[in-house]
Give the backbone structure.
Amino acid sequence: MDSLNSDLQFLEQLRRTGSLSDSEIEQAKATLTAKYSQPPGSSATPAERRKRRNRLENERSQIERNWRIKSERLKAHDKYGREYIPTKAGGVFGGIALAAGGVFVATQTGRWEIGVPLGLVLLTVAGVAGWGMWLKAQAYEDAEAQYKRDMMGLRDDLRQVDSASRR
């Protein structure tokens, strides 16, 4: 609808400057209103609908290709190189486990001059690793949600083109 509003504002500007007569303005408004009130592709020729469908299919392929690339980049890897989808819970629990190890080392080594600094290092690593995994999980969730929104929009557009083709 933003395009309709901007087109109508442009017509109003043309009317004010005297570039178009009142009858030309009314005719243009009627054309614009009719254009924006019909679903996309409904008044198009079969060739135009095929062209629009092909463009939408290409757009879908591009979105899927971009999602595969992005999801591969955002996946985490375990120590054996296996991929997995990062989770926020994994970041929290991993950070807690490392922090517990840091506390254990700091309190149980018997030599405070070694145990405390080593424990503090482990606590720092725990915080950084846990936060990093949390952020990676959040980025993955955001990217997946965007992919789903894009695909739902395309699916709706394709349905409109298909329903217009059947009329």
The mean pLDDT is 82. The radius of gyration is 29 Å. The chain has five helices and two strands.
